[in-house]
Design goal:
Elements (H helix, E strand, L loop, with lengths): L2 H14 L3 E7 L9 E6 L3 H17 L6 E3 L6 E5 L3 E6 L1 H7 L1 H5 L6 H8 L1 H21 L18 H10 L19 H11 L7 H22 L1
Parallel strand pairs: 2-5
Antiparallel strand pairs: 1-2, 3-4, 4-5
Length: about 230
């Protein structure tokens, strides 16, 4: 039996007996023993047994195989083995203690989407719905009208535009001519001052030199007398 059809049968069977917190997980990436796991809660031993019996009867009626059932004696945890799918029917305390969702719950399967895809009636309804939407959309759309191609208008160049563009351009900056440097000769006074600095001092006579040296000689004599 197709796995999608099988999971739909199981979910329907659990809902018929008012199963609580039904969850479905895809386990193909975790193990090769089975493809789906379903977990459901029953409030009492009687309900868990009734849930297991509902799953077994509905799958057999659809031509599926029931490999085995375990836990019917106590009713705290009833396991239904359907080959490609395992159904765990547990009381709330047992379910909270073992937490199977944390072990197998990496890829949850949405129950509503699985049921819609698996049943042929739902597939036909979905197809007809799509067709009706498509027809309504085509009906509301207006007919497409041919588009007339327009030739591009020729560009006209007038004298005004030519002058305008020429005026818009900034004139180039004019080069300022640089004058020639003229050397100016020194004045007569400047020449005389330079020559005066270059002139040699006048020669002194021996008498004048001796007169200048006389005070110095007197000081030397005094120093010698004081030393004696």
């Amino acid at each position: 039996m197709d796995i999608k059809k099988l999971q739909t049968l199981v979910v329907d069977a659990l809902e018929d007996v008012k199963g609580q917190e039904i969850v479905l997980f895809d386990t193909t990436h975790l193990t090769s023993l089975f493809d789906r796991i379903a977990v459901v809660s029953g409030t009492s031993n009687r309900q868990t047994k009734a849930l297991a019996a509902s799953v077994r009867d509905k799958v057999k009626a659809a031509g599926g195989d029931v490999v085995g059932m375990e836990g019917e004696d106590t009713g705290e945890w009833v396991l239904v083995d359907l080959g490609d799918m395992i159904v765990h029917i547990m009381q709330p305390a047992i379910r909270q203690y073992y937490r199977l969702e944390e072990i197998w719950g990496e890829k949850p399967v949405k129950l509503g989407a699985a049921k819609r895809k698996s049943t042929p009636e739902a597939a036909e309804a979905a197809e007809s719905k799509v067709k009706s939407k498509h027809l309504a959309a085509n009906k509301d759309e207006p007919e497409a009208q041919p588009v007339k191609e327009r030739k591009p208008a020729a560009r006209k160049t007038t004298a005004k535009t030519a002058t305008g563009t020429a005026a818009a351009k900034k004139p180039a900056a004019k080069k300022v001519p640089t004058g020639k440097t003229v050397k100016v000769g020194p004045s007569k006074t400047e020449i005389a001052a330079v020559e005066a600095t270059k002139a040699k001092p006048p020669k002194r006579t021996p008498k004048a030199a001796a007169a200048d040296a006389e005070p110095v000689k007197k000081v030397i004599r005094r120093v010698k007398k004081a030393a004696e």
